[in-house]
Design goal:
By secondary structure, this protein is mostly helical. It has eight helices and no strands. Helix 1 crosses helix 3, helix 2 crosses helix 3 and helix 7 crosses helix 8.
C-alpha cells in the first residue's frame, strides 16, 4: 500500500479522532499525524490492525497538542478575555428598567385575568408562599383541589404568557 492510499483510506478517521479529542478541526495536527505515519511506517508491526495503529498515532498526537505550551497559552489568554467580557454592568440602565417593568405588568395582567378560583390559589401558593396544606385550610377545600387548581392556573398562564417564555 502506498502512502497516498494510506492517507486517503484513513483521512476521515484521523479528522474525527482529532475533533473528538481537541474539540476542533485542526489541519496542523492532521499534517503532523501524516508526518509521523510516514516517518514510522517501517516500524509498524503486524500485531494489530493497521487502522488501530493509525488511530493510536492520531490519538497520541492530539493529546500531545493539548499538552503543548501553545494550547495552554491560548486557553489562558482566552479565559482572561472571557472574564473581561463576562463582567456585567451592575447598574440598570433606563431601557433595562423599562423592559423589566413592562414584563412584570404583563405577568400581573395575566394573573388578574385568571378565573377567581385559579387566581386565589396562585396568589396564596406562588406569590405568598403558602404550602398546599395551608392554602387548603385557608380556602376550606381538599389538597387535591388546590393541586388541580394550581396545575390548571399554571397551564392557563403558560398559554397567556407564551411570548415571554
Amino acid at each position: 500500500m502506498n502512502f497516498n492510499e494510506i492517507i486517503e483510506n484513513n483521512k476521515n478517521n484521523i479528522k474525527n479522532i482529532i475533533k473528538l479529542i481537541t474539540k476542533q478541526d485542526n489541519e496542523d495536527i492532521e499534517q503532523e499525524v501524516y508526518i509521523k505515519l510516514w516517518k514510522n511506517k517501517d516500524k509498524y508491526q503486524e500485531r494489530g490492525s493497521f487502522k488501530s495503529w493509525v488511530n493510536t498515532i492520531a490519538k497520541n498526537t492530539s493529546k500531545d497538542y493539548l499538552k503543548s505550551k501553545v494550547v495552554k497559552y491560548e486557553q489562558n489568554s482566552t479565559s482572561e478575555e472571557l472574564i473581561l467580557n463576562n463582567i456585567k454592568d451592575k447598574k440598570n440602565n433606563p431601557e433595562k428598567t423599562l423592559l423589566i417593568s413592562e414584563r412584570q405588568q404583563i405577568i400581573i395582567n395575566a394573573i388578574e385575568n385568571l378565573k377567581p378560583k385559579f387566581k386565589e390559589v396562585i396568589m396564596l401558593c406562588e406569590i405568598n408562599g403558602y404550602t398546599y396544606e395551608q392554602a387548603a385550610k385557608q380556602l376550606k377545600c381538599p389538597i387535591g383541589t388546590i393541586k388541580s387548581r394550581i396545575y390548571n392556573a399554571k397551564k392557563e398562564l403558560a398559554d397567556n404568557l407564551k411570548e415571554l417564555l
